[in-house]
Structure prediction request, 79 residues.
Amino acid sequence: MQNTIDLNQPVAEVIKAHPELLDLLIDLAFKPLANPVMRNTVGKVTSLKAGSKMASVSLEKIVTTLENNGYDVIGGDHD
Prediction:
């Protein structure tokens, strides 16, 4: 259960629990996460699910990428 990512959890919490995901998420299209101020402001209130719409990246691509990197994904329409 420790490698579980909830798409409804704020991005900042996901990164806090899984700091190794930061570069992966930035590469996926979440470029603002490279800025610590953005991670600590917008990241605290924006989930991966909502962020996918803002970053124009499909939720399916996020789920597939996370699963391919060994994570179980829950939340959103994916359940």
